[in-house]
Design a protein that fits this description.
The protein has 253 residues and is an alpha/beta fold. The protein has one domain: Metallo-beta-lactamase, Chain A (4-Layer Sandwich). It has nine helices and 14 strands. The chain binds zinc ion (ZN). Zinc ion is lined by residues 11, 36, 76, 78-79, 170, 223. It comes from Thalassobellus suaedae. This is MBL fold metallo-hydrolase.
């Protein structure tokens, strides 16, 4: 299985438009973060988790020519606003499978109503096949995917486990029985927004506490704000099995 980090930034991305914060002005490419998303590939299958506003550029940058489906964590704009840019995949491949919680599917239907139109549909609009995710394992081709139910303040969000890889973003709290589903995975990805606490995201300290409960071989932090600091400096402060993810990072497992 191969994981590619397409984006590792929080909702505004880094740099923030117009910001003169030192991290936004950094020339280190690891300090430039598109909105959060990963590509998960195994055998000949390619799935993307979330498709935020940077989706088009992320697909170009990763050289991604085919997707077998999109899996959504939740409906916030930084995770869905690239949905229209599935069009090139739709034109080449036909209807694109999407996987999401019932509430997320409802939100997509409302915000991208033309995609779901059945009568007099605009010919350039893409068509999708919807698959509802409940909090129980589901199949993507030959892979069993285990949803992890987490909370983003009050909002329900899904994380996902693929074999020995678990991906959780936009987490603020996780019940113990959900943590059990990912105990001792090889690679855990989880969000760490900044140093200061935040109402709906783990800060660095909460993310590190969560990582020690899960006890993975390696953990990577994502959904990062400029307020976390410079990549090179923050990484020096982390435990030896914890790393900051960066855009373009690939992991094979
Ligand atoms: Zn987000």
């Amino acid at each position: 299985m191969k994981i590619t980090f397409l984006g590792t930034g929080t909702s505004q991305g880094i740099p923030i438009i117009g910001s003169s914060h030192p991290v936004c002005l950094s020339e280190n490419s690891k300090d430039k973060r598109l909105r959060v998303s990963v590509l998960v590939e195994w055998d000949n299958y390619t799935y993307v988790i979330d498709c935020g506003p940077d989706f088009r550029y992320q697909m170009l940058r990763a050289g991604c020519k085919k997707i077998d489906g999109i899996i959504f964590t939740h409906e916030h704009s930084d995770h869905v606003m690239g949905f229209d840019d599935i069009r090139p995949f739709y034109f080449r491949q036909g209807d694109i499978p999407i996987y999401a919680h019932k509430r997320v599917l409802k939100s997509l239907r409302k915000r991208f109503d033309y995609v779901f139109e059945t009568e007099n549909k605009y010919p350039g609009a893409p068509t999708v096949v919807t698959n509802r995710i409940k909090n129980k394992p589901f199949q993507l081709n030959n892979m069993e995917v285990i949803p992890i139910n987490v909370k983003h303040a009050e909002l329900q969000v899904f994380g996902f486990r693929f074999n020995d890889f678990a991906y959780l973003t936009d987490v603020k709290s996780v019940k113990d029985k959900e943590i059990e589903k990912i105990k001792n995975v090889k690679v855990l990805v989880v969000n760490a927004l900044r140093i200061e606490p935040h109402r709906s995201h783990f800060n660095l300290e909460e993310a590190l506490q969560f990582i020690s409960k899960v006890n993975p071989e390696k953990a990577y932090l994502t959904h990062i704000s400029h307020l976390l600091g410079f990549h090179a400096e923050v990484e020096k402060t982390l435990p030896k099995n914890v790393f900051l993810a960066f855009d373009g990072l690939q992991i094979n497992l």
